[in-house]
Amino acid sequence: MEALAVLLCLLALLLGAVAGFVLGRRTSPAAAQPADGQLALSDARQDAATARAEASRAREDAAMAKAEIAQHLAEKSELRVAVSEAQRMVAEARSETADAAAQIASATAQRDAAVQRASEQVRDREALVAQFKLLSAESLERQGREAEQVAEHRFKATEQLVGPLSEGLRQMQEKLQAVETERARMAAELGEQVNTLRLSGDAIRREALSLSNALRTPQVRGSWGESSLKRIVEISGLTERCDFDTQHTYVSDDGRFRPDLRVNLPAGKVIFVDAKVPLAAVLDAYNTEDEARQRAHLQTFARHVRTHIDQLSEKNYWQLDVGSPEFVVLYLPSDEFYRLALEQAPDLHDHATRRHIVLASPGLLIPQLQIVANGWKQVAVTETAAQVSRLGRELYERLATLGAHFDKLGRSLSGAVTNYNKSVATLESRVMVSARRFRDLEVTSEELDQVQTVTETPRQLAVAEMLDYQERRDREAELLARDPRLLESPGAPVHERESG
């Protein structure tokens, strides 16, 4: 760095000398040639300015060089400080290395001593082991045999304990395999059933769609309503052609009428039932999700029901059978249809009643028909009671006749016993006395048995009705001939009516 500064100073001095030489050279001809003095002076001035500029640049370069030299000197000083610090650290490292070497030497000496002691201990241990082997070989052999026996005994005991457990595990494994087999079979069956259920669901959906389309046909709706009505009547306990008739045709001055159902009532009266199925609007309501359109379709359904009420009222079915109740039952084959109709038209019942029409659904018609069936049962009970009364009277009369015959038979038996006893007395007093003389004459040695009389007599009948039956019959005939009004209560005997 110092050499570079010296070099720069020399370069600046050299440039100054060159500039002075040039100026001196240009001033000397000026004295010799005065004519060209001004031009040369001007050139010299320019050269001097140029030289001054170059000198100024040289000074700037020298200043910059000095600054760089100062910077390099500062860096050199820092490097000297760093070198001094490094030398100090090297000295410390050398000191630590010497300490470590001393410690390593000490540790090596200790290791060698420990190795020597360990070798001595190994030799002592080998000597002790050899001596122990010599002393305990027999003991170890005996203990080994005992240990083998104990181990075998424990193995057998363990085998006895583990045997049932192994058998249980084997059975459990078999059961698990059976359960797994059954599970696989059931899974396969479940898959088949799910597939069958899916196919059935598809078939049901197709059938439901087909049924929905079919129920839009008037003929199909009518058949469905009639079959539903007939099923409801049969469920109620009525019998076709006895308690009810279907599609019975009436011919009158107004034309031919054929109500769907005619229910026969006791006392020769009938109730007419007509099934109506205005189903198209309900199906349209179920097939749409728009609430406004649903309400519109349901209102159309209620209007259709009202129209059916008016049309059925104009037929006056109750006039076809004199004495029948003046109303006709309009049957809707679903409780849901009945509910929807009343929800949309709450006055529908009043409207139907004013036109002699009774609205009914399966839930309402079944109790009504069961009342009719119960009425027929009461009629049957009444008829049965009348038959029982008639059979009782007939049986009573026959028992009375049989009692008279028994009375006559008893009297005949009493007369026969009396005659028998008289014959026995005559036999003993008249015949047997003479016959026993043959034995006294020793004609025969056989004894003649004594003929016994009959002491039992027939028991007399204690029932008065059976003793004087013929007398009472004659008396009843005489009373009826005198007063025919006694026939008004045939259930009581004539003698009771007379005494009453």
UniProtKB/TrEMBL annotation:
GO terms for biological process: DNA recombination. Residues 41-96 form a coiled coil. Residues 480-500 are annotated as: Disordered. Pfam families: RmuC (PF02646). Keywords: Coiled coil, DNA recombination. InterPro entries: DNA_recombination_RmuC. Belongs to the RmuC family. Involved in DNA recombination. This is DNA recombination protein RmuC. It comes from Tessaracoccus flavescens.
